[in-house]
Amino acid sequence: MQPSARAGVGLVLFATALVGVIQAVPARAAADHLIINEAHLRGGSSNQPYTHKFVEILNPTGSPVVLDGLTLQYRSATGTSNATTVVPLTGTLASGDLHVVQGGSNGTTGTALPAGVVDQVASGLNPSGTTGTIYLVQGSSATLPDASSVVDKLGYGTSNSPEGTAATYTGANSDPGALARTTTDDTGNNAADFAFTTDITPGAANPGQSADGGAPSTPPTSTPPAQSRTIAEIQGTTDTSPLVGRQVTTRGVVTAVYPTGGFNGFYLQAPGSGGVPKTASDASDGVFVYGRTGVSVGNCLDVSGTVVEYGGLTELSGVTTTAVDDCAPVAVTGLATLPVTDADKEAYEGMLVQPQGTYTITNNHAANQYGQLDLAVGDEPLYTPTDKVPHTEAAAYEAQQVRKLITLDDGSSWNLLTNSTAKNSPLAYLSGATPMRTGSHVSFTGPVILDHRFQWNYQPTRQVVGAEVDFLASENDRPTSVPAVGGDVKLATFNVLNYFTDLGQDEAGCKAYTDRSGTPVGTNGCQVRGAYTPAAFADQQAKIVSAVNGLDADVVALMEIENSANFGHDRDQTLANLVDALNAADPGKGWRYVPTSPAQVPTGEDNIRLAFIYRAGTVAPVDGSVILSDPAFANARQPLGQKFEVRGTKTSFVAVANHFKSKGSGADDGTGQGLSNPSRKAQATALTSWVGQVFADQPVFLLGDFNAYSKEEPVQIIESAGFSNVVTSDDTTYQFGGRLGSLDHVFGNDRARQLVSSGAVWNINGDESVAFQYSRRNYNVTDLYAADPFASSDHDPAVVGIVAVKVVDVAIKGNRVGVETAGLPLGATVTVSAVLDDGSTRTFTATVTGSALSFKAPSVKSATVEVTSGGHVVGSGSALK
Fold it and tell me: Beta strand pairing status for 247-258 and 227-228?
């Protein structure tokens, strides 16, 4: 569009609309990019004021912005692919101006949007009126909402890809209202930036919205005199100050200062306060002062300003400060445990506290974006409820464990993935020596501030830059080797996170996720799903090779290997490449892959597949592999079965690799077990039925990524068919949403379980921050990449030991039975059942102490030998006279 009649006067309109209410919003710098300002997505539905939907875009910057080359895109709340709607924008948007895009309609209710307001019409723009994701993109092609080309986005309802937490679009399509941005700031949290309003204002300032994120554009016509108040009086005893909007003067001691990182302020605590535990009915003695940083910890100040609430935090804004000399010192208040309720925490908001005892990291996913770690008080993390209890008990389980949760922040509001200054500032907390893994323990060696910035936080007293901190002790609990599981051979499962030899750079139109210098690293919404460049692939492969060889397994079931047939190659090309890399790194392993059985390959396969690799010196495949082709797996990977025999023994077993439908898309059955739970239940039923028919009376292991937690219905179906999980430790394989659980399992039927020595999870991935993955290399000035197994994937591998039955040499010579015991476990029990010439039987037992045993028996006709150790049959043999 050409600059409209509103161009150049947008900020004036804002200021006019906001006189008298602006003081209730804290001062914030306006966003430095275009932002989605208002979204009315129920146009035409019953009770709505307008016949059409609209999305309003604001230019809060100080310069005009050319819209050509930008697009407005939409994806459903549960979508996992690129946007389904793309609207190219045109024209130039002046500073402070609004650009209104009229969309489609749900019906005929309401009136047309006001004349002169609509800048573009896009009838194909029909976002859901309750839940979805709208985003502004620098580019013309449909992309993902998390792409680096996204300028701004609004996730609402149950959106799976909001900024921070999704905004709440109250009610249904029949409830009048829009989502309106409350300031011109962009905090990166949709729930904080947007509010539901019934006052829909296309082409005009939103109700209560400030011109620059909080500071008044035009001073109020009159300012009431400041009243002298204690900090406790300012805070009050509820979650909102009783003095919001009032001018106050208070006195206190500076306890924390944030000149960098975006907080732009300091904490002030009442003189002589602290040191005494508080209750929920008490008022806090601390408060945040916004807009001044030229102070030092320990300064005694009189502060005058306006009381505001921002993101749940009581603040003083628009302040003046005066140094004074008569403040009594502040004492640190010890917290014997985490205050439980919101009211309990409110009593300490803004105060200097010393958390005591052990905390456990339960979420590190935001560490490389916001510098945050979620902690659980005590020595355990939080778990995905359905990994511990059935879905019917999950809500109660979560309600209890969430009481233990608090976030450890980094004293900064920077988005480390988008802020150029932040990208060049070392990541908080993370290093190879301090990986801050979920499940690991931390303790506080110095005080922090308890505050609320969209969630409750332990806030450092200054911005944390780099991994070294003086207020926190942590541990590096990375396992140095795979857990010992015993057995003669080992069977493992490993999801290798999109190992593709076809690269993004070679796919026409494939976009990339880029590092801080703009170099492509990972693919972005392409057919190929892994690395974008040879350099990134080399990084990825080095980690996977280190992990697979480190497993020390003899058979490995692999998930998320490229299905090379879908890219014009032999189906096994990528699999063969991995085997070559494994053998090049450790020739002694002798890896081979089980080749594709062409007659078994179904049509319409996914771009990722299942596969088996094995060590030829210890095991051998028996016959070809078989693939279950069943309609239940139309939206997943078809199970792959293969029989193996242990060389030099009488032992064979069947392994069936699985990768069930993910939880990210599909039908929601309302049970809280993720999307597509009905599909996974059908897949579990089809799998166990097929195995019972094709591999009857054989030891069978079902292993892989089942995308179902341990107590969910798909697992219950597998267990009801006679299978049990043979990895019985409490270790988990995956983290999601700050909760730990296992999606990866190894199940065995009765005959398989008789072979198992033990099983374990090798915790090299699920507990790691994504910052250590190859795909995040050079996202930050701190290079966390290492060619080791840690963060080689997002799933942990699991391994099981299998006890093989060795062939025991037995010989009958005269009246003696000789048994060769070389290679059998010392202390194993040897039982000889001998049939004599007269038809009677004799039984002899002895313990293995060396390489041979001899039993005396008259006139032996035949002999059968069984050797047992640790409850397992480890050898057998027989002989005739």
Answer: parallel
